[in-house]
Amino acid sequence: TQTVSQSDAHVTVFEGDSVELRCNYSYGGSIYLSWYIQHHGRGLQFLLKYYSGNPVVQGVNGFKAEFSKSDSSFHLRKASVHWSDSAVYFCAVSANTGANTGKLTFGHGTILRVHP
Amino acid sequence: GGIITQTPKFLIGQEGQKLTLKCQQNFNHDTMYWYRQDSGKGLRLIYYSITENDLQKGDLSEGYDASREKKSSFSLTVTSAQKNEMAVFLCASSPANTGQLYFGEGSKLTVL
């Protein structure tokens, strides 16, 4: 069984600031990690994923995340945020084992507020 | 590109009523999912289906039925609506054996 924890329920920054949204997971096997964004009243949209190779993965809109096996982490970062980045961000984990790969376990989400 | 269409967007029912949510996708994806999202919480998997006529239970399947009548559609039935299950239900699809899900905009359930 895999679990995922997002330690910050809310993060508030100003436009142009950098931001890091934290995600820690627990799972002993081959893992698939991803981040999703949810704007108010909308469905989730995929941002990026990691399952092997380079631990730093680039996503859409300048987002990137870094996988760390030693820290059991997959933190999301952006160098300079825009007000339109205000949304809820979900970290997700699954077992990278064929048909189970899409069976995601989600964190509770981090609400990012970007002040103009 | 494709789209996931969930109907209805808002569903109001009475306690004890049987209610059905529908989902259509035109990505031609093999796998489809139903997640429940409660306010301030993450998403929890109710049912998923890896191909037509397949059904797999998620962590929250009790009180729900699902049906994958054809590859493009996946419906979810709340067998007896309860007030504590007012939530947003999200349908998603993905290609086989990947974790990149494409979500619909959600169906908000209110139980009176």
Q: TL;DR?
A:
The complex is a heterodimer of chains A (116) and B (112). Chain A is mainly beta.
Key features?
heterodimer; A: 116 residues; mainly beta; Immunoglobulin-like; six-stranded mixed β-sheet; four-stranded antiparallel β-sheet; globular; B: 112 residues; seven-stranded mixed β-sheet; 0% helix; 53% strand
Description:
Helix content of chain A is 0%, strand content 52%. Chain A is built from no helices and twelve strands. In chain A, strands 2, 5, 6, 10, 11 and 12 form a six-stranded mixed sheet that branches. In chain A, strands 3-9-8-7 form a four-stranded antiparallel sheet, with no helix packed on it. The radius of gyration of chain A is 14 Å and the shape is globular. The mean pLDDT of chain A is 94. In chain B, 0% of the residues lie in helices and 53% in strands. Chain B is built from no helices and eleven strands. Chain B has strands spanning 4-7, 10-13, 19-25, 31-37, 43-49, 56-57, 64-70, 73-78, 87-94, 102-103, 107-111. The relative contact order of chain B is 0.33. The interface between A and B is medium-sized, with 28 and 27 residues.
- What does the main sheet of chain A amount to? 6 strands, mixed
Spatial extent as radius of gyration of chain A: 14 Å
Q: Structural class of the secondary elements of chain B?
A: mainly beta
Helix content of chain A: under 10%
Determine the most extensive contact between two protein chains. Answer: A-B, 28 and 27 residues
Domain count of chain B: 1
Mean pLDDT of chain B: 93
CATH superfamily of chain B: Immunoglobulins
Number of H- or I-type helical stretches of chain B: 0
CATH fold title of chain A = Immunoglobulin-like
Give the integer mean of the pLDDT values of chain A: 94
Give the uncertain stretches of chain B in residue-range form: none
Q: Indicate the proportion of strand residues of chain B.
A: over 45%
| CATH superfamily annotation of chain A | Immunoglobulins
- Tell me the domain tally of chain A: 1
Strand content of chain A: over 45%
How many strands in all of chain A?
A: 12
Gross CATH architecture of chain B: Sandwich
Instruction: Compute the number of strand runs of chain B.
Output: 11
